[in-house]
Amino acid sequence: MSRLSFAATAVVLVLLFGTASWLYPGFLSARVIANLFGDNAALGIAAIGMTFVILSGGIDLSVGAVLAFTSTLVALLVTRHAVPPLLAIALGLAIGAAFGAVMGAMIHRYELPPFLVTLAGMFFARGMAFVLSLESLGISHPFYRSAATFGIPLSAKATLNAPALIFLVLFAAASCLLHATRFGRDVYAVGGHEPSARLLGVAVGKTKIAVYALSGTCSALAGVVATLRMGSGNPAQGTGFELDAIACVVIGGTLLSGGVGSLAGTLNGVLIFGTIQIALVFDGRLNSWWARIVVGALLLLFIVFQKLLARAASRRA
Amino acid sequence: MSTTRPDPLHPDPLHKLRAYFAGFPLLWPLVGLAALLLFNVVYHPGFLALEVRDGHLYGTPVDLLHQGAKGILLAIGMTLVIASGGIDLSVGSVMALAGAAAALLAKRADLPLVAVIVLPLLLAAIAGLWNGLLVTRIGIQPIIATLVLMTSGRGLAMLLTGGQNPAFDRSGFIFLGNGHLLGLPFTIYLVAAALTTAGLLLRRTALGLFLESTGDNERASRASGVDARLVKTAVYVVSGVCAGLAGLVATSNIKQADPIRTGEMMELDAIFAVVVGGTALTGGRFTLAGSVVGALLIQTLTQTMFYLGVPPPIAPVPKAIIVLAVCLLQSAGFRRDVVGLVKRPIRR
User: Fold this and answer.
1) Out of A9, A238, B192, B263, which could bridge A268 as a Cys pair, Cβ 3.0 to 4.6 Å?
2) What CATH code is carried by the domain that includes residue A218?
3) In 3D, which of A189, A192, A174 has the Cα closest to residue A267?
4) What is the C-alpha separation between B74 and B291, in angstroms, rounded?
5) In Å, how far is B4's CA from the nearest CA of chain A?
6) Best CA proximity match to B151, nearest among A285, A40, A291
7) What pLDDT, on the 0 to 100 scale, is given for residue B80?
């Protein structure tokens, strides 16, 4: 069943990209493909963390706020306190991980609903971002200047920039973690059926806390990537980001009930999302709010599709 | 000696007190509200002062009720949805949608005022029905079903207004959010009417019982003849209408539609109000009065931040801490841990 929904998302991606290439001249180019990864790197990174959380049967609504907090923190440390960028980034990632772990601990130990804890986490992180700075902070540092120009050239016009590379490397690492380690199997087991996982000796608590810590780290990394892309840290950015990330994961065929799905599907979801955005830019007639409507419609379509598949599977059984 | 010996059946000396409070679930939200008001009075002695100007009553308490009206309206709908075991994340977007529709209708002088009010509410009801059908007919989890409308609702609102914030000059509609009646803001009467209707329907008829049984155990209620699907669909429609009404008030307040800002983050305030008010997120028993107190608590907190000069963007931090604290206090595991921490040193 997971293979079927993965195939469906792959078909949708190819159809979407094909239609856009047919409609808009210049769409099918190395530059657009490189931009697809570069522009959606932050979203993709957050969606990777979200995939682990949703596979384990939870949800993380704090990703956009943690992104904003980390980007503001890094910008503040680098510009106002002259902290070396790499140290600031490491600190940001550590705080993101700790923040996620605390939320995971509350969800596991005190059995609070994940959406409520992460909703409160979202409020908290967003507010704390504004405590750091009420305004967007521009970063000017030699490290950032060289990071902005860094990239692997694909062709004369197209380069895979630093955010895109971070996204791809993280994707490869996360795929290994999910599909080739004991931790990955534990995540699937916990999301599939928690009581059974516990009876089979899976460390349910550790797994759940680790999953939220991982998602916090990914959101923080998305914030770091945002500073690389924008050259600034902004406490107001990333509102609605959590929904985009959830949409990418769901469109990618991961079941919201947990236990079924894959990271490759999520990559598909992110690329579908990105293709819609770029196609809207190419079209020029349709306004940006159409993107929200289309993503909402796609999200719904895929959920209904998943439900139908599940119903068919249960009938066969 | 016999008088001081603890009763073996009731080893807890506070048992009577506890039993008394258990019968009064509104206690903690009220204590919280009172503490916050007290803090304000100490910090700013004129906080509770009321004065009459031009025949209208002015002062912070009136302001709290007037500004809190939207939150209370949302909290009424959200209480019912949560009691049914669901959640509605789309209320903020539905506010924006209804507000956008109302602003466009209000610009047309040929339409009667009734149409300007009723048609957007109908739209909001349809939005709620959509949520309800997704949950009951297709079987999508409520968080996700309402997430769809939350993401695309604002897009639809912008589609309606063409990305603009249309302003209007329609005295009847502007009265809804700014007018006074018998010295008090009209919004207070609106909230009172909504609360009375909801209270009468839920507590004087069997509807409230059906709702609580559906939220508690859907299968058992269906087995005993309650149409659980109908109940669940209905609560989303009610929540939609409440959100629509709140959207009308918000739009009337600023005399223009604002698809991006109207109801922004209000869904979270509404959920927080219900949780702080003492309705459990697991569904079942609910308290409307608690949710009203919760909504007022959130509004007072917002106002307090304002008085303290805290920039509005930072206001979410204390809200998040309060809600988490309330939820932790309700969690049996947390209380066990805290009691363990306190008792251990004594035993040694």
Assistant:
1) A9
2) 1.10.3470
3) A174
4) 10
5) 37
6) A291
7) 94
Q: 3-class SS at B10?
A: coil
- pLDDT tens digits for B234-268? 999 999 999 999 999 999 988 888 888 888 778 88
Query: Which residue range is the domain that position A222 belongs to?
Result: 2-311
Residue A138 phi, psi (nearest 5): -80, 140
Q: Helix, strand or coil for residue B52?
A: strand
Backbone φ, ψ for residue A160 (5° rounding): -85, 105
**Is the residue at A316 inside a domain?**
no
Query: pLDDT value at position B1?
Result: 41
| Full set of structural domains in chain B with CATH | 56-327 (1.10.3470)
For chain A, how many structural domains are there in total? 1
Residue A9 lies in a domain: yes
B143 and A115 Cβ atoms separated by less than 8 Å: yes
Interface of A with B (CB under 8 A): 59, 106, 109-113, 115-117, 119-124, 126-128, 130-131, 134, 235-236, 240, 243, 246-247, 250, 256-257, 287, 289-293, 295-297, 299-300, 303-304, 307
pLDDT in tens, B27-68: 777 888 888 888 888 887 777 777 787 777 777 888 888 889
pLDDT recorded at residue B348? 46
Alpha carbon of B97 to those of A269, A316, B69, B122, B200: distances in Å?
A: 28, 42, 18, 11, 29
Q: Is residue A126 part of a domain?
A: yes
